[in-house]
Prior knowledge:
Blueprint: E1 8-9, H1 23-32, E2 37-40, H2 49-59, E3 62-73, E4 76-83, H3 90-116, H4 122-129, H5 138-148, H6 154-162, H7 177-186, E5 190-193, H8 203-215, E6 220-224, H9 230-242, E7 246-249, H10 279-287
Parallel strand pairs: 1-2, 2-3, 5-6, 6-7
Antiparallel strand pairs: 3-4, 4-5
Helix pairs in contact: 1-2, 4-5, 5-6
The structure holds adenosine monophosphate (AMP) and manganese (II) ion (3 copies).
Residues 18, 43, 70, 137-139, 142, 154-155, 158, 254 line the site of adenosine monophosphate.
Amino acid sequence: MKPYVGTADLHSHSTASDGALKPEELVSRAAARGLTHLALTDHDNASGGAQAQKAAGALGVTLIPGAEISTTWNNAEIHIVGLFLDLSTPALQQFFKGQLERRQERAEEIGRRLERQGFEHAYERTKAMAREGAVITRGNYARYIASTGRAQSTDDAFNTYLKKGRSAYVSTLWPDIAEACAVIARAGGVSVLAHPRRYDFTNSKLRRLITYFVSCGGRAMEVASCQQRPCDREFLAKLSVEYALKASLGSDLHQPSPWRDLGLSLLLPPECSAVWTCPEAETYFKNFKEDPA
Length: 293
Ligand code: AMP
Ligand code: MN
Ligand code: MN
Ligand code: MN
């Protein structure tokens, strides 16, 4: 069954990366909030997929397998969400392995930098706060730093230590957008440009990014998210139409709050063509069985 606007959330994180909820908790929350479709899109891995799928089958939620891939474009970190992925694709698994190695090296280096500033065993402690085997992101470090009391919140931890230019920032050369789009396509999925307004680009730079993304085979962009100014949503809707991209919608949930939650405020302007009308999505829904096991 295909979703309708208002019943789907196509961007969320679990404890398989920097989300606070376990995959099955995320799915139960989606069901409790009246969603029929949820995409699990952890950073650079999909290891929560099996658990989420099991819970989704039991609760009548359609789980859309996904991941949020880190890429580098013009020295900026750009996130590409892959949706409707066949997670058993060897090329995708190989790609995740490479991302994991990059993340591991980076996480250890962030830890060393924090140690120099008096955060003892920063890496080990951050890892201990995460689920076993979870991908360690700056989001995990932010939570650890806040827990030590040396930052008032995760936002504060980011601004003081983790963002570009700060003492524990480690720059990483992620794969090119073309590589991310290619592996998503190999896995039968759809590439979505994540949160286009969060890169702090001028409109002309954002247009250059979208032009490049389209040239790489990118198919959709996120138009609706929580905590978004109406003018931003309208502008992104306009861009999606102009560049013939499908429109996606997602909370990017990490930790529920009154202003960010699954399905919260996710409406697409009427001129948009929803991402689930892509042929890849049609194929996915056609083959979808309530319980694939
Ligand atoms: P990484 O992929 O390791 O660079 O980590 C990026 C993640 O850090 C994002 O997905 C967010 O979850 C989190 N993040 C980014 N910016 C902030 C911020 N200003 N405050 C709190 N968390 C943030
Ligand atoms: Mn995150
Ligand atoms: Mn992101
Ligand atoms: Mn995200």
